[in-house]
Amino acid sequence: MKIVDDHLSRSPWFSGLPADLQQAVRNGIVSRVVEPDGYVCRRGDHCRHWVGVVDGLVKVCNSSQTGRLMTFAGIPPGAWFGEGTVLKSEQWHYDAIALRPSLVALLPAELFFRILDESLFFNRFLLEHINERLGQLMATVQNDRLSEPSLRVSNCLLAMFNPKLYPICSAEIALTQEEIGYLSGITRQKVNRAVRRLQEVGLVNVSYGRVEVTNVEGLRRFAEASE
After folding, report:
1. Beta bridge pairs of residue 81
2. Which of 49, 52, 184, 216 could form a disulfide with 106 if both were Cys (CB 3.0 to 4.6 A apart)?
3. Are residues 153 and 206 in the same domain?
4. What is the mean pLDDT of residues 109-130?
5. Structural domains counted in the chain
6. Do 23 and 70 share a domain, yes or no?
């Protein structure tokens, strides 16, 4: 599938592989379309693939014993996730759910470990990738304790612009208010008030069914000033 080939060619970890491993990836990778609210992976299932989001939007989430839902990350196109679970050959400890029609690429665990064994470049990439993911998780825990909606929304949006985790992601990301609510853990009414405030200061553009970040650096300064 051409869209998957294009996704691979723009992925930093793939471009640094030798030609034989690149061809092995092209031959071994599989793609799957996941409809909204469908599972990319499900908590408790055995992990058999490293997962890349080619198109769409996926949320990584979990629920507590009391039923409280926590979203760890929103995964935009260009991102890969699940490497820790693949490395430990464990069951998934979270759900990954499509928020809109999404195309995902699945790299079999056996091929993942072959690349790990044969490519020093890939090992270095994974170390940096896992370190960035840990930083994102810590920021998510902190953000989950914030009460001010516009700050929660701004931090939620900023998380989508990490160039190391999401290197292919567009300079501008458009989300619906419903999707922002899912990712930031607040109601749609609070999202509406928050994005209106962010629009008033020129950081986002709000239109029907879309909230588009137009000033990433300004949004980052806003979040820092509000903490």
Report:
1. 51
2. 49
3. yes
4. 96
5. 2
6. yes
Q: Which tens digit of pLDDT belongs to each residue from 31-70?
A: 999 999 999 999 999 999 999 999 999 999 886 655 666 7
Cα–Cα distance, 158 to 216 (Å, whole number): 7
For residues 176 and 170, what is the distance between their CA atoms, to the nearest angstrom?
16
pLDDT class for 19, splitting at 50, 70, 90? very high
User: Are 85 and 164 contained in the same domain?
Assistant: no
Q: Say yes or no to pLDDT of 170 above 70.
A: no
129 with 153, same domain: the answer is no
Tracing tokens 């270095």 back to the chain, one arrives at: 124
Distance CA 94, CA 104 (A): 17
Containing structural domain, residue 32: 2-142
